[in-house]
Amino acid sequence: MSTLENLPENERSLLLVDDDKAFLSRLERAMERRGFAVRSADTVAQGLAAVAENPPSFAVVDLRLEDGNGLEVVSALHEKRPDARVVVLTGYGNIATAVTAVKLGAVDYLAKPADADDVINALLASGETKPEPPENPMSADRVRWEHIQRVYELCERNVSETARRLNMHRRTLQRILAKRAPR
């Protein structure tokens, strides 16, 4: 695994694209502390504009954004700068989108919430070695809770519609939503 210190200053550019502003802000600060020159965007359009203006060496892109699919940013960056290392983040992944992300040029695909160390390990991993698995991966209960929250938000916080789409009883869903997130 290479380290950031081995890279020249002009090769430390990083583009972060995520519509979760709180997560984006935390990740931006963490990556700057680790030596990256960070630019951030919270829409596909801003991400594409940043790539067109000055393609970065590294990128961390959320899969689903408010105005479209983050894979558009991955594809545009790979066209402009084939050597760029891109990690795709998602709160709800599946094998098909992971394969598509890798075909478009991503080097890894991480589940949210990923911490800065997981992201750096994925960005800087060489082709011969795989990054270490996360120290504290999300539990199955947490993954389930995240999925339910995502569907709930996509259904505009409508409990009945969310329950229908998840094939779950409405009262069961209400109890789950009333609890704190599992660890």
TrEMBL record:
One of its GO terms (biological process) is phosphorelay signal transduction system. The modification 4-aspartylphosphate is found at D62. It holds the Pfam family Response_reg. Keywords: DNA-binding, Phosphoprotein, Transcription, Transcription regulation, Two-component regulatory system. Residues 13-127 form the Response regulatory domain. GO terms for molecular function: DNA binding. PROSITE patterns: RESPONSE_REGULATORY. This is Acid tolerance regulatory protein ActR. It comes from Arsenicitalea aurantiaca. The lineage of its organism: Bacteria, Pseudomonadati, Pseudomonadota, Alphaproteobacteria, Hyphomicrobiales.
